[in-house]
Amino acid sequence: MGSEPSLDLNTAVRGHWEARSCGTWEEIVGDAPEKSLEWFRRVENHRYQAEPCIHAVAQFTRYHGKKILEIGVGAGTDHLQWARAGAECHGVDLTDAAIANTTAHLAHYGFRSELRRIDAETLPFADASFDVVYSWGVIHHSESPEKIIREIHRILKPGGRFIGMMYRRNSVLTLRTWVRHALLKGRPWKSFRQVLWNHMESLGTKGYTEPELKSMFGDFAFCETIPYLTVYDTDKIPRVIHQFFPPGCGWFIGIRARKQDR
Question: Which residues contact 165 (CB under 8 A, 6 or more apart)?
């Protein structure tokens, strides 16, 4: 999918996110000491101001007492919401930085979780282990997202839920990225796939259409996709213009899927 094959894409992805977990940029945390309570509060405030749809899709409080696994814990912000909701929390991430961040974040509030640094393409859990698997904006960074989705299906209990978000390829943000890195550089033949792969966050980032995602979740009994226009699409575009953009051209596709009951 990229302009050049990768010898070990997941190693490159890990290196990118080890340097800085998503949402912990300096412009967000400012001068707060790293991993301090104020540092994490700034991360949390920014995340839910920029992405309020997280709460609408996840509906954390509905899963009190349920055993959940989060794939890609990052700074632990959503993981904290699962803990606050009374879920039995487990989490995995490709990076040591995310495991350290999430452990520290939860500790500030008196919570803990079973956390492991692993590649989610092979999950070290028994079949039918979890009520819920959650992953927000992570799976599309993997070398083989389809492997992760198969693993999610395997470890969910009958009737278990997947909740998450993956990126849309044909979005306003992708178009803006294409203009910047293809059109304005005299390379208009570059595809949206190539531009996302090489210029969006870590190397190898992918975007999908809703039919493609429903096909990827085809082993599930039910899959709902929910389009969201995001601040990342509309940033610096006058409201008088972007108010007419439909959700279906937004960067986020929320996903809710249910495994077949026995």
Answer: 53, 54, 57, 135, 136, 137, 252, 253, 254, 255
Rounded to two decimals, the pTM is 0.95
Asked if 258 and 220 touch (Cβ cutoff 8 Å), the reply is: yes
Tokens encoding 242: 């972007």
> Looking at residue 254, what DSSP letter applies?
E
Q: pLDDT tens digits, residue range 199-224?
A: 999 999 999 999 999 999 999 999 99
CA nearest 101: which of 20, 28, 12, 11? 20
Closest by CA position to 259, among listed 137, 165, 152: 152
Which CATH code for domain 9-169+206-258? 3.40.50.150
For the segment 24-83, what is each residue's pLDDT rounded down to a tens digit?
999 999 999 999 999 999 999 999 999 999 999 999 999 999 999 999 999 999 999 999
Q: Where are the domains of the chain?
A: 9-169+206-258
